[in-house]
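PROTOCOL LOG
Step 1. Enter all chains and additional molecules of the complex.
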Amino acid sequence: MCDTCGCEGDSKITYNKPGEEHTHDHDHGHGHTHSYTHDHDHQHDTDKHAHDHKHEYSHEHSHHDHDHEHDHAHEHHTHEKEHDHPHGKEIKIEHDILNKNNALAERNRGYFEAKNVFALNLVSSPGSGKTSLLERTIKELGSELNFYVVEGDQQTMNDANRIAALKVPVIQINTGNGCHLDAEMVNKAVKQLEVANDSVLFIENVGNLVCPSLFDLGEAKRVVVISVTEGDDKPIKYPTMFHSADICIINKTDLLPYVDFSVAKAKEYALSVNHHLVFFEVSVKTGEGMQQWYQWLKENK
Amino acid sequence: MHELSIATNIIEIAEEFVTKNKGSHISKIEIEVGELSGIVIDSLNFAMELAVKETVLERAEFVITSIEGKSKCNKCGNEFSNSDWYTPCPKCLSMDFEIIAGKELRIKSIFID
Ligand SMILES: Nc1nc2c(ncn2[C@@H]2O[C@H](COP(=O)(O)OP(=O)(O)OP(=O)(O)O)[C@@H](O)[C@H]2O)c(=O)[nH]1
Ligand SMILES: [Mg+2]
Ligand SMILES: [Zn+2]
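Step 2. Run joint prediction.
Step 3. Record the structure below.
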């Protein structure tokens, strides 16, 4: 539900600047909603299923060198179809499913490059300290660099309000049920934010270590934040995210004496899924290690 | 659940192709999902079931093929299968390798009626 106007339909994505009336398109129509609750009458005619399975298996086998067990185990069928009715015209399309997002992300990237905007996509599990990191960075580097922030959360203006308190332009995207930002959301948000040339754009993604990894936003660098209270095996539990990141910030190092977290182990795990990763060990709370991060920001922007 | 976004993308692409080919609906769609794509096939199946209602895919047979992960070692050049991200090169035990297959997420073909 929209926090500002209370409109129904929590799959609605909203864009809000703190202190302004809600700026999102107020479209209450039901253009393309998908029912999450309908009873899908799913009949499994066992004989037909067996037939299908065989058909698909032999089909696959002519294309790949996979061994039997492998293909067999991974064949998945949902929608059954009468088989006495031949399939229609086959079109080989070889179409990348993320094409649309990737294309839009490239447009964002081109826009950022043309304006010399250094865009960073910050991803992590909930509560690792992304907003705190941005707050401290803005406070300590705000006189040297020009910051803009896009905040992504399912609900609330909380994070945007924290940034707005520092007098930095910010827009909050509320994704409703959505578990990640995508290139289209960032495109819309950035248009409203009117980012100036030669600035740094922080995009704080929805706190989630799984879903955001697939969606390129057009950022220059992806920054994954992990805090020492989370367990040092996070990188191999969520390898897709660590594989797709460029920078890994290990936060809350002030808590190291109280938790069983080995920084060396975490780094080793992270490097095992992505040997290009660059690390910063920081405590946003005490400020320890922040200088190296600032140095990197200034050198790379 | 990002699989729902993926399902929505699949439907959009399918609808585009049906329109382009002046068909009415799709009877079958073949999708390839790499083991390292970050997509859980069962979740995608579930998401598709929810999302296809009243679309050109509503009655389509939905076939997903998993593509094995493959990497090439930067140290010794060995090519090896890996369905996770952190198994070292079996030949030289190096962790320095590039993934060459398994990140696919694509529609291979559609059958239009
Ligand atoms: N001890 C300690 N606590 C920290 C540190 N950094 C952040 N925190 C605390 O961690 C909690 C979560 O911080 P946030 O900055 O809101 O985390 P986030 O990643 O933005 O969270 P979401 O947006 O909800 O995903 C807050 O209570 C912070 O005060 C740190 O370096 N040390
Ligand atoms: Mg936050
Ligand atoms: Zn090797």
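Step 4. Note key features.
The first strand of chain A starts at residue 14 and ends at 16.
The mean pLDDT of chain A is 81.
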